[in-house]
Amino acid sequence: MDYSHQPVMVREVLSYLAPALNDVIVDCTLGGAGHSRVIAAMIGPEGLLIGIDRDRRALQAASEALSDAPCRVSLVHGDYGDIESLLGKLGYPAPSGVLFDFGVSSHQLDEVERGFTYREDAPLDMRMDQGIPLSAADIVNTSSARDLETIISDYGEERWARRIARRIAQERQIAPILTTGRLVQAVLAAIPPGAAAREGQHPARRTFQALRIAVNDELSSVRRGTEGAVRTAARGARIVALSYHSLEDRIVKELFRAKERPCSCPPSLPECVCGRRKALEVMTRKPVRPSEDEVLANPRARSAKLRAAIKVLGPGEDE
After folding, report:
1. Is residue 147 a part of any domain in this protein?
2. Taking CA atoms, which of 15, 64, 109, 290 is between 20 and 30 Å from 147?
3. Nearest of 24, 18, 68 to residue 46 by alpha carbon
């Protein structure tokens, strides 16, 4: 599998991340190293690029892509939600920049056998890290109809979640749902005719998205990873997050807001007495979106939202 892909919003990422000579930059979602290759060229031979990914195939491909990188490179297998412990084990200095590029990567969608895509029939898997025990097939075949409805509704924001969950429960009584094709058939049978066509999207898109998020516990990783980045980053470090889902973006937006305005004192008090200090200066009051030209050239960028903030305290000082 060719892991080369078109990274999203490179110009905007570089503008907000502002990598410079000798910086320590953490790419928390390394993928095909699209962003990292550009960053590596900017931080120089004394700079350090730390790449984290839970997908061992991605790490192997990134290792090859960065083999000639003009900086020091350290690649780490792990969940970016564990950024604090992962960086702690390495013993490197506090990072001067942290990049998150959430969601599923292009190469994972393109690897049909991974079971992420609804456009091809394949084993129903969706695990980014093949070492975790629970696959999408496990969730689909063992969760109650009510739990499936909650997953599809909350993570997929699917209006037909109840109908889809009930149909899945019916279909798995006939035989376990073990392939993406059978799951797509169940979704198509559940959604009223014409409903998906009116939305202009594949009928199974939201259900597949929801299951992928559930399998990989992605929202927990987003929350833990961004909080961990704030705690571990150096004073003056920039934290940049690319989101493709409203729930991811909401977590980042609320964290940035809470770290910029942490005071919990009642409005009636003349001055702050809670002692909570501002940890971040938010750079993006509204999310930055890709240009029309980029969306035309790379349709997978169409839902991207970028948020960025600067750390104004030293590591751990806001605790």
Report:
1. yes
2. 109
3. 24
